Amino acid sequence: MTINLVKWRLMLLTFPIxxxxxxxxxxxxxxxxxxxxxxFSETGLVFTGGIFLVGFMLAGxxxxxxxxxxxxxxxxxTIESIYDTVVLAYGFNPNFDLLxxxxxxxxxxxxxxxxxxxxxxxxxxxxxxxxxxxxxxxxEKTRMGSTTSWVKREQTNLRKLFARATVxxxxxxxxxxxxxxxxxxxxxxxxxxxxxxxxxxISIILVGFITQIYVYMVSLIKDIDHPFxxxxxxxxxxxxxxxxxxxxxxxxxxxxxx
Length: 258
Hints:
By secondary structure, the protein is mostly helical. The protein has 9 helices and 2 strands; from the N terminus they run H-E-H-H-H-H-H-H-E-H-H.
């Protein structure tokens, strides 16, 4: 049986923080002989408020994430639609270099993938998208109905999709909310240090459980908020959007160049 390390990566990254907090609590109780100032039942309101804030931040980031999941597939289908229109126009009137136009469309796909993997800039991708206009001009020369307007419409859709992806990639969901969430998490961990529990075993279980929930959720929300933030080291995070629709289309387009 193979273990999906991507799925467990966030858990493994956050667990050491939880372990440190638990050992710190044990040290305070066992070595400093400090049982706590408040009982666990008196801290319920603070924990509830923290969970409410986590839920609010998670709901906000999930909305963008669900939209982001559609973008690679919509980009691929838009580019392929342009490709199909060019091939159709060539079949109607072969008065242009089809291979050159195929290569130009392929370069658009390649540049978008390269942008997401930190190999190209936004400026390069926008330039490649703008160059689709020259493809539309060649299609226009075939005088095959409204194919030019279709190519231009798909070019506009592609530009909108890429612009939306760059906005999601470069912005955060309510930065002040993140600041408050991080402060709230630190305060809750601090509160756990001065909370009185019935015995050490219960203390270890509850401190570990609550700390792991908050630390994990803060990290998860940050991951979800950057679905196109593919790491330079190539270690894909669980929340990264899969680019397979674009990658698979790029492979098909490359095969069609021969």
